[in-house]
Amino acid sequence: MDCKEALAWYERQWEKDRRRWEEEKRALVERLEEQAAEILRLKSELGEREAQLSREFQGRLEACEGRLEEERAAREGCERALERLARPVLGEGFFRYLAQALELWDQALLEEARKLDGNGVEAWLRAIWAERAEALSGALAGQAPDWRRVRTGLVLEWALLAWLEGIRDG
Q: What residue ranges carry the coiled-coil annotation (predicted)?
């Protein structure tokens, strides 16, 4: 092989390598463009998915916050109800007024019993009054008195007063 043939062979080899290289370059450029397009598509999908998840979780968060507020309001309502239940049903003023009214009643009954000169009636009345005073002071202190005994004592006092008035009036 002489120099011209060797040169021609090298030029053919070089041309073949250059075409192959150009082909590989074109393939790589296409592949890079495809990958760039894929990256853009994936970024777009990722952005859409992030936005969707963000909206979804924002909705969930708002729903949870709404439920939390409802539960807080319900808890506060329960606390207010418990506070109301902890307070005596009848206020202190009622018991003070009741004590004054019963004191007048007791005076009238005592006067009638004294007129009768009555067989231990005054001592019995004082015992009932002491029990009633204890029940009323217990109610003012937040205790639960035995209201049946208090009512029974009042009914007995009323019956005694009616009987004493009947005896007096003849």
A: 11-81
**Which has more pLDDT, 120 or 5?**
5
Q: Residue 157: which of 128, 134, 123 has the closest Cα?
A: 128
Do the Cβ atoms of 140 and 95 come closer than 8 Å? Answer: yes
- Please give the sequence-ordered ranges of beta strands (E in DSSP) within the chain, or none if there are none: none
Find where tokens 């307070």 sit. Answer: 87
Q: Where are the domains of the chain?
A: 1-87, 90-169
Query: According to the 3-state scheme, what is the secondary structure of 53-112?
Result: HHHHHHHHHHHHHHHHHHHHHHHHHHHHHHHHHHCCCCCHHHHHHHHHHHHHHHHHHHHH
| CA distances in angstroms from 20 to 1, 16, 141, listed in the order given | 26, 6, 105
Cα(113)–Cα(125) distance, integer angstroms: 9
Residue type, 31: R
CB 125 within 8 A of CB 110: yes
Instruction: Convert the pLDDT of each residue in 68-111 to its tens digit.
Output: 999 999 999 999 988 877 766 666 777 777 778 777 777 777 77
